[in-house]
Write a structure and sequence with these properties.
formyl-coa transferase, domain 3; mainly alpha; elongated; three-stranded antiparallel beta sheet; about 10% strand
């Protein structure tokens, strides 16, 4: 297995692209972790931006701006691709292939209330016991890494945590005097007032290349209209979260298909197995 943090064309330039390596090792599983999917796949972004473009951002922000320790990075960039990888490795008929995982798709996949509350609770506990600067930079305390509400009551995400992105942001909003205030907490109030002057679309339009990591939070209804989400969810919901159908993989066994064999391997007698089947403790494939 080879895992790479995807940058378009970079591995190919090194002679380490999937096409190059698969010739030497056809069984290679090549996992590329990307940030955003579909039309935004070539744009730079960070954690809050992945939430914004996922189509689930307005759910995430239902009760106001929420912050966590890189929620989308961890769920969409780690757990989700790891799940894809393990599912592929577990299949007895697996073959070498190029797996691609997008962080924004992964964020959708793991947008479950229980997971959200768990991570949120852990984040609260961590913030109360650990005042590490690295966490503070991502918890909404600094102006360069926040969600901001706009005049149309929609949200926009800014995660200009790298200086080049922050400088670009200061340029597009015509605030050169902010250049040295990326981590000045007192600037948050000024920026909140600034973003309330115009709708989210207007702010995003200032930087069409997204070099400032400024992304509008795409509402769910718009996500359905502007992307392939409606088709995916209607035909095969798993494709919406990045699990494309693969006809080469072995289908899962039917319920109870191996119950008898496994019970025998455990040393159970036929009589005991019959009792367990009769009690519903063991399942058995229904004959057709």
């Amino acid at each position: 297995v080879l895992v790479e943090n995807f940058r378009s064309g970079f591995m190919e330039e090194l002679g380490l692209g999937y096409g190059d390596l698969a010739e030497s090792n056809p069984d290679l599983i090549y996992l590329s972790i990307r940030g955003m999917s579909e039309k935004l796949s070539s744009k730079p972004g960070h954690d809050l931006n992945f939430i914004a473009t996922s189509g689930c951002g307005d759910w995430f922000l239902e009760n106001g701006a929420n912050y966590s320790s890189t929620f989308a990075d961890v769920l969409g960039g780690v757990f989700f691709p790891l799940t894809k990888l393990l599912l592929h490795l577990a299949n007895p008929n697996r073959r070498g292939m190029h797996l691609i995982a997008h962080a924004d798709e992964g964020f959708r996949n793991f947008y479950l209330p229980k997971a959200f509350e768990s991570v949120k609770r852990e984040t609260t506990e961590f913030s109360q016991t650990n005042k590490a600067d690295s966490f503070e930079k991502l918890n909404g305390s600094y102006p360069n890494s926040r969600f901001y509400r706009c005049s149309d009551d929609q949200w926009i995400s800014l995660q200009a945590i790298q200086m080049k992105h922050w400088e670009q942001f200061c340029k597009v909003v015509n605030r050169p005097e902010w250049r040295d205030r990326a981590e000045d907490k007192s600037l948050v109030r000024e920026m909140e007032k600034l973003f309330l002057e115009s709708p989210a679309h207007s702010w995003e339009a200032l930087d069409p290349e997204r070099k400032s990591c400024l992304f509008r939070v795409v509402p769910w209804k718009e996500h359905l209209q502007e992307s392939s989400a409606r088709t995916h969810l209607s035909l095969d919901p798993l494709t919406w979260v990045g699990f494309a159908p693969n006809r080469n993989l072995t289908p899962s066994p039917s319920l109870g298909q191996d119950s008898f064999g496994i019970a025998h391997e455990l040393g159970l007698t036929n009589e005991k197995i019959s009792q367990l089947l009769g009690a519903g403790i063991l399942a058995q494939t229904q004959s057709t």
